[in-house]
Amino acid sequence: MTDPLLLNPRTYDPTHLDEPSRRLLRATVDWFEQRGKQALVDSYNRRDWYGDFLDFAAKEGLFATFLTPAADGGGDPDKRWDTARNAALSEILGFYGLGYWYTWQVTVLGLGPVWQSGNAAARARAAELLDQGHVMAFGLSERPHGADIYSTDMVLTPDGAGGFRATGGKYYIGNGNVAGLVSVFGRRADVEGPDGYVFFAADSRHPAYRLVRNVVNAQMYVSEFRLEDYPVRAEDVLHTGKAAFDAALNTVNVGKFNLCTASIGICEHAMYEAVTHAHDRVLYGRRVTDFPHVRRELTDAYARLVAMKLFSDRAVDYFRSAGPDDRRYLLFNPMTKMKVTTEGEKVIDLLWDVIAAKGFEADTYFDKAAKDIRGLPKLEGTVHVNLALILKFMANYLFQPTGHPPVPTRHDAAEDEFLFRQGPARGLGAIRFHDWRAAYDAHAQVPNVARFREQADGLCALLAAHAPDETQQRDLDFLLALGQLFALVVYGHLILEQAELTGLDADLLDEIFDLLVRDFSAHATELHGKAATTEEQAAWALAHVRRPVRDAERTARVWERVAALSGTYEMRP
């Protein structure tokens, strides 16, 4: 039986999307399946550059169709920036391997400053390069500074003819070995402060572009490069001053969303492989999946994976419906980056506890998943960076709800043009949200939703009665523990909204919130142990440790869904 909640290449047909998008997504699945598992694992183990995949993408016009805004598409009706279908492709690429997703992801990032720019010549060049099958790169981070864009040693010196000469290095730049266009962030030598920032387009094939090395031991190419007196013409300049700074942050806002769907795809493939292996294996005279601890771990992994998909799918709707007066996506975006990707790590850990040594074998997909799943929480800002960002929304989200029109499911074939005119990257503390309690109230009959709601209300009571004092507000270690509790409330909120929209089975929803109750209790225990926690806050923490509402029959019914995954998908040899 095929599980409708998980991607299964044997039956994949994204009927919620338009026909041209369906065809390209299905063609991508078919390319990988026809290539087969042996080629997939061998190329990974040998760390082969994925030129064959890029040849396929170029032939099909995959990136050109999905990543060219309609305004730059030359009248092609299929070209647009559509977060729903981009998310679908991201999930597929993660399903077959992080490297394939990564070359897509850094192309997304490289295009961000271009599509935000008013430079018509640069936009036309980017569209032409996509049509030719090129990939792009995003030259932001530097070895001494990481992604600290306040500090950059890429220096542009005016050349006296309206352009510049750029000198400096960039580090950890995906696709930097072959990118037709590299969006590079730097600063002018003759202008101090934010007014001196510049984003410009470079070409990795130019003689003044020196590729230093691949900084990772992997199939993907994550480059270090240097520009040595690189000529930056006026028509290469994408942004200057504060707009360049905003373009960097807004590009990451667009691009980091893809990390959640990559994590989902990786976990889906790993789950098929792990469940099939465990269900077919007999130890000590018993099928491995007859052991109670194995059933619990696989059931938890499945429920966590479904929760990841529910949250991420609903977040797409807020992305696509965003506008100057509705920027709620700026909370849900770091949530997908921070929360969904760390949940992916938990899923893989649970599966690995079951399959044990099998998870190290070189001819499995799981071996790759176990390595690659660790990277996603650490890209586009660490978990801690994104959790600190999430905290900026906490007061308004919990205590100051406002009226917003309902956001529908957004699978329509439309351009998400607001993502490239997000405007100044500030004012997060002023963003208002709809009342999170409504989604919880609508599912109050689900036992563990009700129990988790008690914990969420308790968090509000804690912040009202014992809010962090000035010292605690400067203690990031303390605030991050508090942020994990808040993040769970937001996570549950969108899960519930998507469950309502999709008619999710009540057993499965209850099982998901069984996990959230346990997770809240674990984070409350962590808060209790922090050195900065006051006696009153510590007492609150212990008082809000809860046991989930247990229902053996419900869990058994969810287990049957998990067991049914055995043998439903295995990649062609």
From TrEMBL:
Superkingdom field: Bacteria
Record Gene3D superfamilies: Butyryl-CoA Dehydrogenase, subunit A, domain 2 (2.40.110.10), Butyryl-CoA Dehydrogenase, subunit A, domain 3 (1.20.140.10)
Tagged with keyword Protein biosynthesis: no
Keywords recorded for this protein, A-Z: FAD, Flavoprotein
Keyword Flavoprotein applies: yes
Signal peptide: none
InterPro entries attached to this UniProt entry: Acyl-CoA_Oxase/DH_mid-dom_sf (IPR046373), AcylCo_DH-like_C (IPR036250), AcylCo_DH/oxidase_C (IPR009075), AcylCoA_DH/oxidase_NM_dom_sf (IPR009100)
Family: Belongs to the acyl-CoA dehydrogenase family.
Domain Acyl-CoA dehydrogenase/oxidase C-terminal: 245-393
GO cellular component, one term: plasma membrane
Record protein name field: Alkylation response protein AidB-like acyl-CoA dehydrogenase
GO molecular function, one term: acyl-CoA dehydrogenase activity
